[in-house]
Design goal:
34% of the residues lie in helices and 21% in strands. Helix 7 (189-199) links the parallel strand 5 and strand 6. It is of the alpha/beta class.
Length: 268
Amino acid sequence: MSEASGGGRSNALDRVLPLLDRPPAEPDVAHGYLDLLGEEDRPHDTIAQRLMRSGFLPKIYEDLWRPVLFGMFKGPLGPDIEEEYALARDWLDLAAIPDGTVLDVACGPGNVTRALAAGMTGHGLVVGVDASSTMLDRAVTDTVRPSPRGANGAAEVAYVRGDAADLPFGDEVFDAVCCFGGLYLFDDPWAAVDGVTRVLKPGGRAAFLTTRKPELPVIGTGSSVLGRLTGIRMFGADDLCNALRGRGFTALRQRTYGLMQFVGATRG
């Protein structure tokens, strides 16, 4: 993994530039990530979106927030964090693309991004994209500068500050795309799925972790109301699978745990 800690451009960030649909003439990498949003203001955020861009949440996200909250949503039979990471690496078949290029959508503080990179043993690149500067500041801090590329047995990592729901990358540039814990925050998740489809190469794999509305009427209605109040969308059990089939994905797989679901598929 590789990342500049601030004030300079890492080799990994140089590798990101050709992947963009509109590479900036003067890339802003002052904070250790490629910033494509600058001072852009977003006044109409939901509660959940504002929380993700706060200065507080990144400090507790990986060690407390994600394990506790996701654990409650997944229930007692759900996989733990390390099992989630292993599932993502397996469903994306990272072992088959050691030199590939992988995208982590809505990467937050980079916990999944780094876990994906650890599953690639060649000269691959894992790019984390998120709109939150506070999350990416934490991601850069927690991403350890490695020995020369590939020598540490993991892919390089680079972070991009951009709109995860309107991906700033070119068509068919990634071998695999992961979105674990972000789709339910987007104002238009189906536009985000369109973006994932667009940037993924034919034959590439996608993996998602998102919410699932219970089939029991009372619980399902209650979770939907809570979701609308907080800005967290609750997906029906078949919503995401049907959306992927409609976009030409094949080899769909799904696992459900409590209020969460894992979905994987291959772009046709």
